[in-house]
TrEMBL record:
This is Proline iminopeptidase. One of its GO terms (molecular function) is peptidase activity. SUPFAM superfamilies: alpha/beta-Hydrolases. It holds the Pfam family Abhydrolase_1. It comes from Cellulophaga tyrosinoxydans. One of its GO terms (biological process) is proteolysis. InterPro entries: AB_hydrolase_1, AB_hydrolase_fold, AB_hydrolase_sf, Peptidase_S33, Pro_imino_pep. GO terms for cellular component: membrane.
Length: 348
């Protein structure tokens, strides 16, 4: 017997009206889209840039920051070197952190190119810079659940000093290419690295320094062509990344000379950092810590390996091809080690 036509139509409608199969959600794409999104962020208008007010005894000034990406558990504040250099020295982080969904914050310290540059030597103290970092942290709402602090060279000094006072706010600490003792750094520069140069070149450098003829173009020429290309960035100067050239062009020499001094073979003269030494206090640092050293660094890699064992929860990353700016001349090892440290710390 034939089925009624309306029954056949019902069957057709039933099968045609079934909910279509859902496409699987690409979680990686979803995370990437969220990482790059500025939705509901208060810095959307400026593309991540914030000028953060800093209160000091000499008044209120503003410092420049730029946040890249969004990750509620991985936020890295970058402390540049110098003192008086700029965030531009970290430009290559754009090539590695985004694909790991690591949020990171570029930051020009007070006195640096993109921030206010007051003309007052009393502002250039380690203690005041530590309080500045703490004010930046609060403004960016970073805390122990997400706050990683990465400091390189002078930024490493600042990161160590911050951790000694405020490590309760940190999730992880990264000390890049910086020793814990300026006297030991001076000894390494003068007794190990200097004598490795061509004797005639080293003698000419020492003569210029003895005469305090630091504005002599010959001094810069000797340093860039014989010392910097061996121990700061191991490639011909003409091949240096444009961001590094910009950093040097934007340097605030007042801050640099007052704290670091003129010489590139240690910190001498009246420079305020010349006696800085916290190596006996490293054991106070309990937060997970990565110390980065490099074979050709201006800093002694053995000392930095020792530092990683002095802190309570340390790890050492050695860059066998790198120098002081290992993020460029040993890039693969540098970023692989940092990313793994952040991954491992985030699991705890």
């Amino acid at each position: 017997m034939k089925k009624p036509i309306f029954f056949t139509l019902l069957i057709v409608l039933f099968f045609n009206c079934k909910e279509p199969a859902k496409e699987p959600i690409d979680t990686a794409t979803s995370e990437a889209e969220n990482y790059l999104s500025f939705t509901n962020r208060d810095d959307q208008f400026t593309g991540g840039i914030k000028m953060i007010p800093i209160t000091t005894e000499k008044g209120t000034f503003k410092v420049w920051t730029k946040t890249v990406g969004h990750n509620p558990t991985k936020k890295v504040l970058l402390l540049h070197g110098g003192p008086g250099m700029t965030h531009e020295i970290y430009s290559c982080f754009d090539g590695y952190f985004p694909q790991e969904s690591i949020e990171y914050i570029y930051y020009d310290q007070l006195g640096s190119y993109y921030s206010d540059r007051p003309d007052d030597l009393s502002l250039w103290t380690t203690e005041r810079f530590v309080e500045e970092v703490e004010q930046v942290r609060k403004a960016l709402k970073l805390d122990e659940s997400n706050f990683y602090l990465l400091g390189q060279s002078w930024g490493g000094i600042l990161a160590m000093e911050y951790a000694l006072k405020y490590q309760k706010n940190l999730k992880g600490l990264i000390i890049s290419n910086m020793m814990s003792s300026i006297p030991e750094y001076n000894a390494y520069a003068q007794e190990v690295l200097g004598p490795q140069l061509d004797p005639k070149v080293y003698e000419e450098i020492k003569l210029i320094e003895a005469n305090q003829d630091f504005t002599n173009p010959r001094y810069g020429e000797l340093l860039f062509n014989h010392y910097y290309t061996e121990h700061v960035l191991r490639m011909p100067v003409e091949e240096w990344p444009e961001a590094i050239s910009r950093t040097f062009n934007h340097a605030n020499n007042q801050v640099y000379v007052h704290m670091q001094g003129h010489s590139e073979f240690g910190i001498t003269g009246d420079a305020t950092l010349k006696d800085w030494d916290i190596k006996t206090r490293l054991k106070e640092i309990a937060v997970p810590t990565l110390v980065i050293g490099a074979k050709y660094d201006t800093m002694d890699p053995k000392h930095m390996e020792w530092m990683s064992k002095e802190v309570q929860n340390g790890r050492y990353l050695f860059c066998p091809n790198g120098s002081h700016l290992s993020q460029y001349d040993d890039q693969k090892n540098y970023f692989k080690g940092i990313i793994q440290f952040i991954r491992d710390t985030n699991k705890k």
